Amino acid sequence: MALLHVDFFSDVLGMCMDMDVILPQQTSGQIGMEGKAGDGRYKTMYLLHGMSDDQTIWQRRTSIERYVSQLGIAVVMPTTHLAFYTDTTYGMKYWTYISQELPKICREFFPRMSDRKEDTLAAGLSMGGYGAWKLALRAPETFGAGASLSGALDIVEDYRRQTETPEGRKALFEGIFGSVEQLRGSDDEILALADGLAAVRPKEELPPLYAWCGTEDFLYEGNLKVWDHVKKLGYDLTCMDSEGDHQWKYWDAKIQDVLRWWLKTDLDLQ
């Protein structure tokens, strides 16, 4: 595999941005790891970070490069700061950046990345889990599937939880989404997005979705609520829970399950 640290300029955001990119490489002489790179264009996973992190975190906390080495896929790990993958009310267009500009930039920089939605997955944890489902539901022409690990899928409830405590982040969340009333039912709410897409597409054209959340996670009840809702709408949802809270030892294991689900493989990625 090749690991690239990419600094570039975003016209949408008007500032320099960062992403780390894993690209397939055919190798045979590495100790303890085999690299594969197939013919044609690469399937690509956009792997999103959570609230406290940046583009380096999946490399620092998991073995993502090792897991994908035998799969022949590319992985894009962008930074999007603490903006919930949203065109914020304070004027920074992080949604436009992540859903439109970034895929275009990646495919210009790395022309062997596939531009087919069937070959493009959005995945992430916590805030990034919300972002991943949002990409699949709001930009399904680009992102053909979405995978959430411990995702903030019930974003209205998360907004309330984050802002109603004495040490809450009211100014931050209002700066991103506006008021909770503005958020509810908008294109930034997963429930509303799922409703809207299901209303205009037949079930067989809805993007497949994956989710996992630990039963001790503070986001667990919100996940159950959203999973039940999208299942009733007819989405192809693979969801599961197991013992666990909000930490990396679970996400390191579950990102392997995401890869097996998306690529329909039973490879041992350890």
UniProtKB/TrEMBL annotation:
Molecular function via GO: acyltransferase activity, transferring groups other than amino-acyl groups
Gene3D superfamilies xrefs: alpha/beta hydrolase (3.40.50.1820)
Pfam families per record: Esterase
SUPFAM superfamilies assigned to the protein according to its UniProt record, in alphabetical order: alpha/beta-Hydrolases
InterPro entries to which the protein is assigned, alphabetical: AB_hydrolase_fold, Esterase-like, Mycobacterial_A85_antigen
PANTHER family to which the protein is assigned, alphabetical: DIACYLGLYCEROL ACYLTRANSFERASE_MYCOLYLTRANSFERASE AG85A, ENTEROCHELIN ESTERASE-RELATED
Full protein name: Esterase family protein
Species this protein is from: Candidatus Eisenbergiella merdigallinarum
